[in-house]
Amino acid sequence: MQQWFVEKHGAVPGLVFIKVIHGLSSLFTDLIDFDDALNMQAAQLWSTNREQFTHRAREYIAKYCERR
Fold this sequence. Notes:
By secondary structure, the protein is mostly helical. It has 2 domains: 1-32, no CATH class; 34-68, no CATH class. Helices cover 71% and strands 0% of the residues. The protein is built from 4 helices and no strands. Helix 3 crosses helix 4.
């Protein structure tokens, strides 16, 4: 958007909204980096065998998460 438009008409709510959406999107998508994972074994399994990764994740959830 042209700077003169913002100066003449003030802040544009739609523009602010779009910036917030882009910020939230990058916040969540930038966190997915399996090359720099805290759990390298899980990251490697995710990359090589998704089915086994899902199975193991479900096992951990069943074992360590409390149902309410």
